[in-house]
Design goal:
- 31% of the residues are buried.
- The protein is α/β, with parallel strands linked by helices and 476 residues long.
- It contains 19 helices and 17 strands.
Length: 476
């Protein structure tokens, strides 16, 4: 395996600054030659590979030997023989958190979104605009430095100032936070998908507050909560006398959100007739008040959310396909709490602080209480967890919340499904039951030994020993 290297110095005055190592992956040799010339004045160390496989092998070796790849940023072509840029990102994200910028000759928003969804930090269209490329490189590298400093300063806890109440170190949630940061800079429509209680409105608020429209209003409307015959009036407003009870002119939520963001929660429940009028507004930025023929214009960013599968709704004729594609410029999938149980201790601590005024003497949770929280299914997701902590704060009589203080709506724990009954019906040995349970806990904690050991009630050394004893040598 070989690679071309070249070292650049910006000037004598910056020779003491640490170089940022940039890995360029492109099967076109001319690209590297072009970038050598264009980035000559920058303080970068450049390395080039003609294939993603070779680059991935180098990154793996570096991570095994030194704990990280050592690169500050990767510039990767999208279409390459054998391994594409998309597949390369997927593999790299398993071993390192290097910043990645995709280069593509195809100006497709779908391609860019897919790349960012799986872990790319940004993208640039070929032919490369060098001033734009330099700006992207500087920003992405700076963002990564700030992110690492933030993690170090908070001793491993996530900095919640950027995304407010959105907390999570789980890879799925980290991907959501990356997507929020990226889509905030643009004014494209965003569709948030996820179960009820996962924090879709918090995500919408974070996109708004971190974007160019932050100084304008954020207006939210729940399409389920408003009666069908009133929803059109709420959105578009109505003229005086347009219907019984319309005693005066009233502006709608679209007009109220002028210059800002309109959040349409549970968009899947919007009536079909109103969907057509919303589509017209999104396409033309024009609308009419109920009872008026005069068209009005509004500059509003649309963020929609749903717990439904809108593709299935389109096939069933319950949702307009053209509206779906207008809303789904960028889609962010928000994971359910049961898929990110590693975040439960962090969330519980956050809600403990949030409701400390209810019982200031409470300082934390017992081990059994935290284990109980982490083993629940949480069908109500973050909202249910928050309510549970708030309720425990009220009824707890000690200085720490114990398992008996935690009341959940569904006492059924994770793993207590029909398949688990097989363990007791097929005559397994105690050793086999132990093996299956350890496998289950490791799977639920994404292989994180410290959390798995905590849930199992043993220390990490004991967990490692048991893995060897029962031949659990598969990576999780």
């Amino acid at each position: 395996m070989s690679a071309d290297k070249i070292y650049f110095e910006k000037s004598i005055g910056t020779m003491n600054l640490p170089k940022s190592k940039i890995l360029i992956i492109d099967d076109d040799k001319d690209i590297f030659g072009f970038l050598k010339v264009k980035l000559l004045a920058e303080n970068y160390e450049l390395e080039h590979f003609l294939s993603a496989e070779e680059a991935l092998e180098k990154i793996k070796n570096q991570c095994q030997a030194h704990g990280s790849s050592g690169y500050s940023l990767i510039l990767c072509d999208l279409l390459m023989p054998r391994m594409s840029g998309i597949n390369f990102i997927k593999e790299v994200r398993k071993i390192d958190d290097i910043s990645i910028v995709i280069m593509t000759a195809f100006a497709s928003i779908e391609t860019a979104v897919e790349a960012m969804r799986i872990g790319a930090d940004d993208y640039i269209i070929k032919p490369l605009n060098i001033p734009e490329l330099k700006s992207i490189i500087q920003r992405v590298i700076k963002d990564k430095v700030v992110q690492r400093e933030s993690v170090a300063n908070t001793e491993g806890e996530q900095d919640i100032n950027f995304c407010y109440d959105l907390i999570g170190t789980d890879p799925q949630m980290q991907n959501v936070l990356r997507m929020i940061k990226k889509v905030s800079r643009a004014s494209v429509n965003v569709l948030l998908c996820g179960q009820s209680g996962t924090g879709k409105e918090l995500v919408a608020q974070s996109i708004h507050r971190n974007g160019p429209r932050a100084h304008q209003g954020f207006v939210a409307v729940n399409c389920t909560a408003i009666p069908e015959n009133l929803l059109e009036s709420e959105l578009f407003g109505h003229a005086k006398g347009s219907f019984t009870g319309a005693i005066s002119r009233r502006k709608g939520l679209i007009e109220t959100a002028e210059g800002g963001t309109l959040f349409l929660d549970e968009i899947g429940d919007m009536p079909l007739a109103l969907q057509g009028k919303l589509l017209r507004f999104i396409q033309e930025r024009e609308y009419k008040l109920v009872g008026e023929n005069l068209s009005k214009q509004a500059d509003v960013r649309i963020i929609a959310a749903t717990h439904r599968d809108l593709k299935k709704e389109c096939k069933a004729g319950k949702f307009r396909e053209d509206l779906y594609y207008r809303l789904n410029v960028i889609c962010i999938e928000i994971p359910p709490l049961k898929n990110r149980i590693n975040d439960i201790p962090l969330l519980a601590k956050h809600f403990l602080k949030k409701y400390s005024v209810l019982n200031p003497q409470i300082t934390g949770f017992t081990e059994s209480a935290m284990k109980k929280l982490m083993l629940q299914q949480w069908p109500g997701n973050i909202r249910e967890l928050e309510n549970t902590i708030e309720r425990a704060m009220v009824f707890c009589n000690g200085k720490v919340i114990d398992a008996c203080d935690i009341e959940v709506d569904f006492e059924k724990e994770v793993g207590q499904d029909e398949s688990s009954n097989d363990i007791f019906s097929c005559g397994l040995t105690l050793r086999e039951v132990e093996k299956r349970y350890i496998e289950y806990i490791l799977k639920k904690t994404s292989g994180k030994k410290e959390i798995a050991a905590q849930l199992l009630g043993i220390d990490r050394k004991t967990l490692y020993r048991k893995e060897l004893e029962i031949n659990l040598n598969k990576p999780h």
